[in-house]
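Let's practice the habit of predicting before peeking. Look at the sequence and jot down your guess about where helices and strands might fall. Then scroll down.
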Amino acid sequence: MRGFDAGLRFAKLAETLLEWRDSPCRLTRTDPRYAPGRFLALKLEALGREALAGRRAVVVWGAGPVGKAWSRALRAAGHEVRAFVEVDPRKVGGRRHGAPVVAVEEAGRLRGPLHLAAVGQKGARERIRAEAARLGLADGVDLIAVA
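Done guessing? Here is the structure:
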């Protein structure tokens, strides 16, 4: 998070840089400091220092478990969740945590709030970034991937 605060950009690389053994006893599996909720809290804290400063409203891309966890944390921190953006037609038109669930095509009309890509499925981040760019949302300015 200190790197993020210093302006560094992060990305997933295609090539493997490091391999390690994953034991069920290692600290990242057993210590509460490494729990997913703690990482979410740290990310939210970092976003609050700049991108979410001033209680900026948010649009959450993804109305599944990851998006709903972000919605709960954002609302607890005083941010309005203006809408969820979703590809699943069964969810579009509904509501999550009091906010409407809209189709991707409608996301371009939601200007002003920070868009957060909160979908944990493999390849989702790239698809969301491509759709956001098509809608005129700038990556790293209008849209930030958090999952």
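How did you do? Strands lie at 58-61, 81-86, 95-96, 99-103, 114-117, 143-145.
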